[in-house]
């Protein structure tokens, strides 16, 4: 979760988010090299007095500054396209969770098991305790096993919503009458926070998402407990 002093990106919790962070660093290094080179050239132009009155054309330099940016763009585009296709890939999910966006809360359904359904409301400010995060915690957390492929089916019951958890690189629109699909895998345990990132009405800011990543054993115990409710 991002805090006040967090100046960098959040720590990744999934292999895909790790790859996105690597791509971010890769693109940033290319940008830094271009900025330093262009800055150095501009600085030298300010402070030298070279001139060449017979210069009419420079086909060689024009070829260089046409081809070089094209090569740089290829170095950015290839890993970007690879990631784009990897984000849409669904590989034999172990657990399927259906998330339904409402004004202004989320509902979750675990249809692989005995009718496990529950609503997830934000904990009101006056009921928040020391262990809860203000405006970020919910009364019923979603739980998934780590090191397992998870498939999320996302839809909405009323207006457009967006199910978003930054640490997982997941942002998927919840659209009424449409079922969108996303796949991810958590590589560590923890509690991950997100929010609806689609303006969906007056209380759009107050429908947080909390996902708890636990071991398979604890997940099966949690499912058994939830199915008895």
TrEMBL record:
Keywords: Copper, Electron transport, Magnesium, Membrane, Metal-binding, Mitochondrion, Mitochondrion inner membrane, Respiratory chain, Translocase, Transmembrane, Transmembrane helix, Transport. Residues 2-83 form the Cytochrome oxidase subunit II transmembrane region profile domain. Its cofactor is Cu cation. PROSITE patterns: COX2 (PS00078). One of its GO terms (biological process) is ATP synthesis coupled electron transport. GO terms for cellular component: mitochondrial inner membrane. One of its GO terms (molecular function) is oxidoreductase activity. Residues 95-214 form the Cytochrome oxidase subunit II copper A binding domain. Component of the cytochrome c oxidase (complex IV, CIV), a multisubunit enzyme composed of a catalytic core of 3 subunits and several supernumerary subunits. The complex exists as a monomer or a dimer and forms supercomplexes (SCs) in the inner mitochondrial membrane with ubiquinol-cytochrome c oxidoreductase (cytochrome b-c1 complex, complex III, CIII). Component of the cytochrome c oxidase, the last enzyme in the mitochondrial electron transport chain which drives oxidative phosphorylation. The respiratory chain contains 3 multisubunit complexes succinate dehydrogenase (complex II, CII), ubiquinol-cytochrome c oxidoreductase (cytochrome b-c1 complex, complex III, CIII) and cytochrome c oxidase (complex IV, CIV), that cooperate to transfer electrons derived from NADH and succinate to molecular oxygen, creating an electrochemical gradient over the inner membrane that drives transmembrane transport and the ATP synthase. This is Cytochrome c oxidase subunit 2. It comes from Ocypus ophthalmicus.
């Amino acid at each position: 979760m991002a805090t006040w002093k967090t100046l960098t990106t959040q720590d990744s919790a999934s292999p895909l988010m790790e790859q996105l962070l690597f791509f971010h660093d890769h693109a940033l290094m290319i940008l830094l090299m271009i900025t330093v080179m262009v800055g150095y050239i501009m600085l030298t132009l300010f402070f030298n007095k070279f001139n060449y009155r017979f210069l009419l054309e420079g086909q060689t330099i024009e070829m260089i500054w046409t081809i070089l940016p094209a090569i740089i763009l290829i170095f950015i585009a290839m890993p970007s396209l690879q990631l784009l296709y990897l984000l849409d890939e669904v590989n034999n999910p172990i657990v399927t969770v259906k998330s339904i966006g409402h004004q202004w809360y989320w509902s979750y359904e675990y249809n692989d098991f005995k009718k496990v359904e529950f609503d997830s409301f934000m904990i009101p400010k006056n009921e928040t305790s020391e262990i809860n995060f203000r405006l970020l915690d919910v009364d019923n957390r979603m739980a998934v096993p780590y090191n397992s492929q998870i498939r999320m089916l996302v839809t909405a019951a009323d207006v457009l919503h967006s199910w978003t958890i930054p640490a997982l690189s997941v942002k998927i629109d919840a659209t009424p009458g449409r079922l969108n699909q996303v796949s991810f895998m958590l590589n560590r345990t923890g509690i991950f926070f997100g929010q609806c990132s689609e303006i969906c009405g007056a209380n759009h800011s107050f429908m947080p998402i909390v996902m708890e990543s636990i071991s398979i054993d604890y997940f099966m115990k949690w499912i058994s407990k939830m199915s008895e409710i």
